[in-house]
Amino acid sequence: MEHVADNPWVALAYLIAGVCFILALRGLSSPESSRRGNRYGMIGMAIAVVTTLVTHVPTVPVLAVGEVAGYDYAALMQRVDTLAVFEILAAIGIGAVIGVVTARRIAMTAMPQLVAAFHSLVGLAAVLVAIAAFLNPVAFGIADIVTPLIGAPFAAIHGVSRVEMILGVAIGAITFSGSVIAFLKLNGNMGGAPIMLPMRHAINLGVALMILWFSFSFWLTQSPLDFWIVVALSFAIGFLLIIPIGGADMPVVVSMLNSYSGWAAAAMGFTLHNTAMIITGALVGSSGAILSYIMCRAMNRSFISVIAGGFGAEAGPSGGGGAAIDRPWKRGSAEDAAFLMSQAEQVIIVPGYGMAVAQAQHALREMADKLKEHGVRVKYAIHPVAGRMPGHMNVLLAEANVPYDEVFELEDVNSEFSQTDVAFVIGANDVTNPAAKTDKTSPIYGMPVLDVEKAKTVLFIKRSMGGVGYAGVDNEVFYRDNTMMLLADAKKMVEEIVKSLD
Amino acid sequence: MSFIAILSIFVLACFVGYFVVWSVTPALHTPLMAVTNAISSVIIVGALIAAAASGSPSAKWLGLLGVVLASINIFGGFAVTQRMLAMYKKKERPAVAKH
């Protein structure tokens, strides 16, 4: 059977779908064009789905019996299988309802979990498609019927397709199980702390080698047993890879899984000779890879060290936390903070994951509005790894109606702290730690940080003095003369400041 | 299509992806992940082929399940992206309409 996608009109339709996906990502270069970009994405998807539906109408053979010109005849005809058509449309409908309802109801703070959950679905879908292609290769046009000298005829899958198929199923399975773990960690069903298995590097390496070996064997023999072993081992290595990675490294993990879901789609695109899938796979794969790179750079850590996991597990809270009690620090009240900020010319707000946990973004925007009424200029400074996924803080601020032209990236705003009266740190810690610039022994040395300590006054909201940031290191900023610690729940503290500003 | 033709499309698309993604503003990185998620569900094409094919009932049911999963992602992914993008607003100019 020929590849249906090799029909020029069908191929053209898939190509247009692929171009629409490129335009969808292109639109994200600015918020104004982004909504149009998203529509391109939807159009592209509609083209791809409709093209597939009309070129793959399910049929059933029927025996037509009749009499023509005195001769009886019997012929096998193909009739549209209405039941199967209905089943397919119902499957799309079920997915549509679940998807739209979830997307409408989800809280913005839960976005990292949602993205992880969606990644797991792409991974699982890729696995299912690869298994279906393995079970029914003729339908996918990737096999020839071979009649051996002894035994029954069988479908011999093309060698290239075997490689593509086993790649697709392996990457899909890793994406699925890895995303499930990422989801459980982000959703709080599983502790955020890294779980360290003994000998984990050896185990992972062993499993990876076994996957390679059985994939090779599958390529040679098309043995079903090899296929299923690869599926099982790939699920296992997905779990093993993500389990030792801690909460604050999640931005890298989520981007990496995003990348994998793309490569899985690309591998299946190769199997089906489908340009829409190949273009999409390449786009998504490189997108996730670039995001992982940006996140790693923002932590000054190599991708390998993040994937190896265990960051922050050795240091433990006792190391830095003990020192915190001995050193003098200043405590402020909501009234002090309100007074200082209302007198300021410029305030820069530095949000972090703590803001998301406390759901303080709306109160924060109210505070900023009050400050603006006092004639204060308010800006927001976002560190690339603040939060649990790339761009997490920006979405939360946008949800609270903070105009995006008041929100700045690290490199655009960092030089301004020295001319700023108040730096207001809410729920961030490691990303403000000056030790990253000075202390070569610090685990976060070399990470680009926000220079909050250069502001005339630093207001630092924190739950208590005991806890340390994710990296397990003490923050010099707490003990500086120009720092005032506001110890409270972030949301409550901001609400009190808002009251005091009236 | 020959393997090399497909590989060429793939390699060129990787380059397109590289340049397009670097031009995405960091403020939109979360919507970027949501929309890439939605479009990677183009894998639904494979699931639809499996679901429509005769010859293997188990492959058909796996295909249908794949269609459900990918549809969740497509509709959910685009809807949540749209919801996020609708929130990004510019500063309201001191509006005359207020007074």
From TrEMBL, chain A:
Membrane-spanning ranges: 12-28, 40-63, 83-102, 114-135, 165-184, 205-221, 227-245, 276-296
Enzyme category, top tier: translocase
Signal peptide interval: none
InterPro entries referenced in this protein's UniProt entry, alphabetically: DHS-like_NAD/FAD-binding_dom, NADH_DH_b, PNTB-like
Functional description taken from the UniProt entry: The transhydrogenation between NADH and NADP is coupled to respiration and ATP hydrolysis and functions as a proton pump across the membrane.
Quaternary structure, from the entry: Complex of an alpha and a beta chain; in Rhodospirillum, the alpha chain seems to be made of two subunits.
Name of the protein described by the UniProt record: NAD(P) transhydrogenase subunit beta
Species: Sphingomonas dokdonensis
Name of the gene this protein is made from: pntB
From TrEMBL, chain B:
Primary localization class, coarse: membrane
Residues in NAD(P) transhydrogenase alpha subunit C-terminal domain copies: 7-90
Function: The transhydrogenation between NADH and NADP is coupled to respiration and ATP hydrolysis and functions as a proton pump across the membrane.
Ranges that cross the membrane: 6-25, 32-55, 61-81
Lineage, opening ranks: Bacteria, Pseudomonadati, Pseudomonadota, Alphaproteobacteria, Sphingomonadales
UniProt source species: Sphingomonas dokdonensis
Keyword annotations: Cell inner membrane, Cell membrane, Membrane, NAD, NADP, Oxidoreductase, Translocase, Transmembrane, Transmembrane helix
Source organism superkingdom: Bacteria
Membrane topology category: Multi-pass membrane protein
Protein name: proton-translocating NAD(P)(+) transhydrogenase
Pfam families assigned: PNTB_4TM
PANTHER family: NAD(P) TRANSHYDROGENASE (PTHR10160), PROTON-TRANSLOCATING NAD(P)(+) TRANSHYDROGENASE (PTHR10160:SF19)
NAD as UniProt keyword: yes
Gene Ontology biological-process entries: NADPH regeneration
Record-listed E.C. numbers: 7.1.1.1
GO-annotated molecular function: NADP binding; oxidoreductase activity; proton-translocating NAD(P)+ transhydrogenase activity
The UniProt record lists the keyword Transmembrane: yes
